[in-house]
Amino acid sequence: METAVLIPCYNEAPTISEVVRSFKSLAPEVDVYVYDNNSIDGTARLAAEAGAIVVPEYRQGKGFVVRSMFRDIDADCYVMVDGDDTYRADEALALREFVADGRADMVIGDRLSSTYFDQNKRPFHGVGNRLVRFLVNHIFHSDVHDIMTGCRCFSRTFVKSFPVLSGGFQIESEMTIHALDNHFLIHEVPIDYRDRPEGSHSKLNTFWDGSRVLGTILMLFRDYQPMIFFGLVAGILLMVSVGMFVVPLDEYLRTGFVAKVPTLVVAVALGVGSMLSLVCGVILESTRLRSKQAYELTLTMLRQQQEILHAIRS
Length: 314
Description:
CATH class of the largest domain: Alpha Beta
Structural class: alpha/beta
Number of helices: 12
Helix content: 55-70%
Largest sheet: 7 strands, mixed
Strand order of the largest sheet: 3-2-1-4-6-5-7
Low-confidence stretches: none
């Protein structure tokens, strides 16, 4: 299979040369693409000297980089790693086996089941990874061990049909949720994780980027499962409405009058809001089903295109 190695980069001068050389030494026939995201430390130059194909991406954010990579590069198999030398090239390339055999559309390099918690020196990152894993698995009824790993392998069908919506570090969560919702084949392989070497610094802000990831998960929950999301909202509003309505109702049954009119008005308003939320969920769920039908047709067209490309190559 024609393989492309994708490395999104922002100020990774201390490590990028080693990352590129490790892939080129193990698989000289593989094209290594480094998309430089406005680095100011010479990352692009060092990557090019090491043998990578360097492409600038001027919109700041990992999501924008991934969007451009997926649109620009054509291959049968895509291996994506970070440029910080935290993943081993041999383990990343080994993920191709599952895509080549048709056993997976997305292979996840699972750090959390391996050395991540021993190597990672930022404790809040570990807490964040566990929280994101808990939320995604419970909301989408899955059992994925590492939601936010930067080491993955993709099939051409997944890459060319994945609509990138996030601009930043939320992209990993978005990939996983998209694969789960659209029933792509997912396979996880435990891999070694090593902390950044001395002189290399993480660009991830634990609390700011963490809150953005959680917001993205909430948004994707709303978009991918609108009936459940708006049904929960409707249920909460209904419970509050009934709880408030009990007060004026009890007063009316005892005295024949309602003195707490504002409470009654708010209770009725919340009840109406509950019904509107439920109606929104029904309408959006119907729209989502139509969208999924169109997406399945798109996947069929991509499969046919891939078969034609293989026939031409052979």
